[in-house]
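Q: My collaborator sent me two sequences in one message, no labels, and asked for predicted structures for both. Can we handle them in order? The first one she listed is below.
A: Yes, handling them in the order given. First sequence, followed by its structure tokens:
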Amino acid sequence: MADLLIRDLNEGTKRLLREWAARHGRTQQGEAKAILESSLHPEPSSWVTRLRNAAQAVSGIDFEDPPRHPAREIDTRGWV
């Protein structure tokens, strides 16, 4: 596998890369690789896939469970 060296990266960009890497649980090299790969490969057009990828990038999405109501009574007279 080939190596890539980036020279003269400004401190602000390097700091942001370090923060992003920490947020995603990666090394700086791993984060830079993920950024390059995601920007060079086309994003899938499915909104479901984009949502899934966005959720994965932030370690998941928590939804509140909707309130549950008891099931309605069904009038079965004449059915059985």
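Q: And the one she listed second?
A: Here it is, processed independently of the first:
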Amino acid sequence: MNPWIRLGLWGALLLWAAAPHAAAQEQQRTPSDPARQRIFIEQIVVLGNKKTRTSVILREMKSRAGHYTTREQLELDRRRIESLGLFNRVEMHLQPREKGYLLIIAVSEQWYLFPFPILFFNDRDISLKKLSYGLGVIHTNFRGRAELLQFAGWLGYNPTLSLIYNNPWIFGRRQFFIRLELLIANLVNKTYDILDQRVNEKRLGVGWSIGKRLTLHTSVSVSMFYQRVRLQPAVPGQTLDPSGLDRILRLGFSYVRDYRDLAWYPTRGSYVQVDYVKSGWPGAKYIDYGQFSLDARKYIPLGAQTALAFRFAADLTHGRVPIYDRLYFGYRWRIRGHFKRRLEGEHRMLVSAGLRFPLLPVRYFSMDMGKMSAYGQNLRFGISGEIFADAGTLWFQNRTDRTGMPLTSGPFGLQTRPGTWLVGAGVGLNFHLPYVNILRLEAAVNPQRQTELIVDIEVAF
């Protein structure tokens, strides 16, 4: 076994061995700890929500008026409200009352409606040839119900027209949610992109999903998506339908269990998502394949916003997978240390670990924005550090009876099992910023002693 892989496995084993000890320390905190002492909430008052409905805030909380809770639970509730992405800052204050406490929740709302110019680099690749430009409009809190409504169109690389509507809460106490999507796009095929050739995927798709929130932390959903795909210029044998036009009906199922304290920068809790998507209908002549996906994450607090973070993700496919639905590294999915390496396969696996710690605790500042000053209040800024390691692999199904263009997978060759892995490690800074949430600056190295600097947004996992 590659010594770097062996070292990584031993490191992961030691970190996991330390995990129960860290969790045990949390459990050993005595009931006399002020954070865990039970307090009675007589009344809850929400302030500062000029647009957002109070019900949107209260439904994210376990704590209820007329019931007992703890300061520890209130902090978790506060961070769940922050995870909505609707507020610059969320504060909670307790005021003594005759029988218990008055809980005051003070929020500073963000600006929700953004007509915005579009200028971005595709696939997290800073290159002029992958530049897209256009216009869009997004409302992240439509009707004050945390509904998302977005319309966008852009030219340049991967020209696209997109319409998305997401409602996280319908039918009242039944707690259902829906998502609608329309997509018209002309995308560069990634398999040919790896070969430095230009083949486009002309796509037209419409999708719908409905789900149910089972508890505060778990949900299930089903989805249906219809898509038409044509390659241009036409490449014989690379669409499943010999006509050159694939008409795909996708049916999907998803289960999510989310116990993270803060979705965009978690330091405690866990996250599990399981998906299965079937492409094609029973008895379909040409299109009949599927994909199973698992994303599991664990965050172990070590105190003062310091945490160990772990992730295991896998995508496994079956059936004849067209080239426009293969799996990749070097585009949206990346291995730090091989950030720009473009690889493809039909199965994918990624393992990551990290140690996160505060350098400059998050502070809040305000800006005078005239009539819009309310939206410039309590803007966050802070810096966190991270030490991380990534490992990933791709492989193809073992099939000898198929013909077509040669499979190219860089250093993986034509591997049909997860035998060869790419690994990398490094250090980074996470900048906590308003509206963006996290901006990452990282330095990574791989076993070949190649180094790279990475600029990216959003926490890695």
